[in-house]
Amino acid sequence: MAIDDKTLEAILNEFPAKVKRSRKKHILIKNSDAGPQEIEANTRTIPGIMTNRGCAFAGCKGVVLGPLKDMVHIVHGPIGCAYYSWMTRRNKAKSEDPKKNFLSYCVSTDMQESDIVFGGEKKLARMIDDVVEIFNPNAITISATCPVGLIGDDINTVARLAREKHGINITAYTCEGYKGVSQSAGHHIANNGLMENIIGQGELEEPPAKYTINILGEYNIGGDSWEVERVLKEIGYHVQAVMTGNGSYEDLKNAHIAQLNLVQCHRSINYIASMLETKYGTPWLKVNFIGIRATIESLRNMAQYFGDEALIKKTEEVIEKELMEIEPQLEPYKKICQGKTTFCFVGGSRGHHYQGLYGELGIKTVLAGYEFAHRDDYEGREVIPNIKPDADSKNIPDLHVLPDENRYRLKIPAERMEELKKKIPLSYYAGMNTTMQDGSIIVDDLNHYETEEFIRILKPDIFSSGIKDKYIPHKMGIPSKQLHNYDYSGPYAGFRGAVNFARDVSMSFITPAWNFIVPPWKDKPLLEGSIEQC
Ligand code: CFN
Ligand code: HCA
């Protein structure tokens, strides 16, 4: 069954009038005849609504800083925030020097009541001394949790004094959870800090290899960036820094020498992409290594960008070889998946990145959305290189270069830009409003009530989201696939990742477990009790 305006109205009628008015602006039924459809995004969640969103601390420490492996990330606050952001995201890392991988540690000042009352600065300073003595890390970050901002601990001064004392890079991030409306604020805080304190501080002056690139917005969840790097290296690229999956302080310091920045996740790290462009003139190119077609197009775009015939040829050879390997493996899974439907609700970019991969397996996305994306993630942009983003960033082009070509390390003559405009097909990563089919539903900041209602009506064959809502569909007898941490599996990126994804999704469909589950409401009364007569 599809959802029309009347059904949507009925779902929203359960809310109080004011809440209904607000939620209505966050939900769209895709209709390409209606012209550009607007959706409200990046606004505060209504208190009382069960959202899947996280906070600024999660976005800063959890998402952007956390994966940097040779740094110790201190969480300044009571233990809960450190504990619940400890390894759950499955950002993998292997260190060249095994003594310099600190990701498996949970490091926190564990503030107690007396620290809240009398201040936690001294405790934080002592902790930094201990961390330097015990771990000898290359650098340290300090992330503030809510109470730190409320009591006014000056973590920047603590960091500066510790830097002078220990002579290593120690920086503070005032990413208290309450800042902004979601994780997104924390991404921005982390981006600013990394740019200000680390990127560009290395000694390298020239790219160490012919095609030197950075990968931005790739966090190595379940090993994704290892799979992407495998292919890129085979083609002949040199990856200077991955931000920040399996990333390191040492690589990041020299990220400014790259010739091109790839932007995989646009939502969490577009700020660094544009700051690198402004400061060092490095152009950036949006890519998507989730899905086979998206991976191929991304590789082709990169080759076109450098424009070297040998690189273009090598790219095609590698694509052909990879396809020969995976196509026969995918066949049996496609048979299982064909004709099925899914929901695809994730935090930011993955909400549209995964639709292509699902489609390649024959699975249609009937509902999708983001927890915390901004309007530009939904609405898509005109794909014209050489345009600066406008003030509210609604028109960020996908291949983004400044007009003054002299500012590039990789010089792009005007006629080459014209050629690139024609050659680079960027349709698959335009905003969500353009990736979904007519009649499908787009929801911003989907909540638990709406989740249940939409599942009840649309009956997807698989539900893909995160841990907070995973078990609602399970209890309704529908498989669910976490697209955040991949449920202990992965990698899902690139060519081989697509096979892993196809296998995992197929297993969820054919497992006989669903035949043994009777949802509680089918054989038990929902309420128990007795009615007394008065
Ligand atoms: S790895 Fe990324 S891809 S960084 Fe971002 S917007 Fe989160 S942690 Mo969860 S899975 Fe998710 Fe994206 Fe970019 Fe991950 S869709 S919510 S903040 N995200
Ligand atoms: C975060 C991290 C998260 C949470 C995932 C989930 C992740 O937002 O703080 O809710 O299942 O990917 O680990 O997005």
Description:
By secondary structure, this protein is an alpha/beta fold. It has helices spanning 5-12, 17-24, 56-65, 79-84, 113-118, 121-135, 146-151, 155-166, 183-197, 224-235, 249-253, 266-280, 292-306, 309-337, 350-360, 375-379, 414-423, 432-435, 448-458, 471-475, 494-510, 520-523, and strands at residues 27-29, 71-76, 107-108, 139-144, 169-173, 212-218, 238-244, 260-263, 284-286, 341-346, 364-370, 399-400, 441-444, 462-465, 480-482. The strands form three sheets. It has a six-stranded mixed beta sheet. α9 packs parallel to α12, α10 (224-235) runs antiparallel to α21 and α14 (309-337) packs parallel to α21 (494-510). The model is unreliable at 382-411 (pLDDT under 50). Bound molecules: FE(7)-MO-S(9)-N cluster and 3-hydroxy-3-carboxy-adipic acid. The site of FE(7)-MO-S(9)-N cluster has 16 residues, from α3 and α12.
